[in-house]
Amino acid sequence: MRVVLSIFLVGGLVITAAWFLGAQPPPPVTAPAPVITPAPGCRLGGGSTTVPEPTKILTRRVDAAWTRIETWLAVHAPRTAARWNAPAPAAALSALQREVGVELPGDLVATLRRHDGSSAGGFVLPLAYRPMSVGEIAGHTRRMCSGPGQPGWDGRFVPFAVDGGGGLLYLDQRGAGSLGEQFDEGPGPGRWPTGLSELLEQTADLLEEGTGPLADRYRPEVDAGWLRWRIR
């Protein structure tokens, strides 16, 4: 017992002496801050405000596909048909292109001029991808480009639709605006149409006739005026 007390007394004296002599305890050891490398190709806020005009042929193609989709919904799923957002104004499209830092695809511009996305509970592309508004597209682009991002993501991808689990559909502006799918763990399996206009046409075929390349995977159902997609 006396030995233990002696040890405590000696330790106390040492600490007291160190305090009087101005000795400082060693600084805590901290791990270095992680280095966050944005996804390649990201130029947030560096895009042009002049949005290229889609060709007349492309605009007619996109508008025709949307007319078919809207007409089917109005007849068969009126509750879904009532939940479109208003068209995106020109100023919003200019701000979006500046924010994402890459030229907007022509078929996406034509689509946003018709509907600035779909509101919650509204129309979704197969299987559950909801067309995003201008603000949502900008927000998802910032999220993907402001940190380490996700495997395979590139800043020249322009997201345009989102599902409830964090998946995205995007248009790849490194080339001809091909369509891709992205999950948290990386790119999707690459089984989508080549572009947005083709996806809209295939969706219209699936709604009207139950035919087309998407028909082997999905089928539309209507529940009390709401469109639902089912996996075959």
From TrEMBL:
SMART domains: SMI1_KNR4
Residue ranges of every copy of the Knr4/Smi1-like domain listed in the record: 87-202
A Pfam family recorded for this sequence: SMI1_KNR4
Protein name according to UniProt: Glucan synthase 1-related protein
